[in-house]
Amino acid sequence: MKNLLFVCLFLWSFLVPEAWAGPKLTGKTQYKFENGNTMVSFGAGGISNPSRENATGTLMMRLWALDRPYMGGGISGKVVASYKLDGLNPNSVYGATSRREKAVMPGVKGSYFLCLTLMEYKGGEYVVADYRNFSEPATLGPVALFTMSGPWKWQSSTEGGTVDITVGKIAHTRPGNTGSLRLALWATEGRYEGGGIRGYLLGTVQKEALKTGWTYTNFTNTAKYTKPPSGSYYVNLVLSEYDNGEYRMVASIPGSSLVKFP
Fewest Cβ atoms closer than 10 Å to its Cβ: which of 66, 128, 154, 243? Predict the structure, then answer.
């Protein structure tokens, strides 16, 4: 009985080859995150439609972040990015295909398995036609709306009552303009590790809002200076954005060593 079933299946597949046909990924698959994980380039060496008779439906390439490698069947995870391609005629191919798209990160930072799926629109929905798992997991999580990076420095003048603040770069990933910005220089007795800050405010600088895609680069501003009580402190730089009626902390550069104040 088993042998008869095998023979029947073999003959059926030989006589009805279209039952096994469907679009396939070919060549090497790849992905590359860019601009602080806000964009991703991904694709494959090619896509083929091996069917000699049937065209495919509209195709979609999707890059997924998953808790475990995908093994077929239903798929559940975070769609990081996707793009559509026109369906393929019978026995036709796409050459190397890659797109650069906006990346949507998982809501929780962690280690994720990435998978590229080729999906075809059939029966009113997109279904997985082929897939490739990437071997190495990637650490992904929510993208910071603001980044502030060095080199940075500060120089106070007790006699002049001012403090100069120099910063290498302030950038943002907001889809629109930011709120107005404020730089604050803080002296703390312990190392600052993020979140709410307690200590002595040495000076603040107001900065205009940044437009979409704009940055502040290698700038120096002068603030009124308030000297802390004598002692040794870590000096930290904190960036805040005006949002919904108040300034909210969005980035910081903590001090790395103690500074003695007379």
Answer: 243
Average pLDDT over residues 248-257: 94
Residue 233: predicted pLDDT:
98
Same domain for 254 and 161: yes
Which residues, listed in sequence order, are joined to residue 147 by a DSSP beta bridge?
A: 171
The structural domain count of the chain equals: 2
Please tell me the pTM assigned to this model.
0.62
Task: List the beta strands (DSSP E) in 35-96.
Answer: 39-44, 46-49, 59-66, 78-85, 92-94
What CATH number should be reported for the domain holding residue 31? Answer: 2.60.40
Cβ neighbours around 109 below 10 Å, total = 11
Question: How many residues are recorded in the chain?
Answer: 262
Per-residue pLDDT tens digits for 54-79: 999 999 999 999 999 999 999 999 99
Classify the C-alpha dihedral 99-100-104-108 as positive or negative. Answer: positive
Is the separation of the CB atoms in 128 and 119 below 8 Å?
A: yes
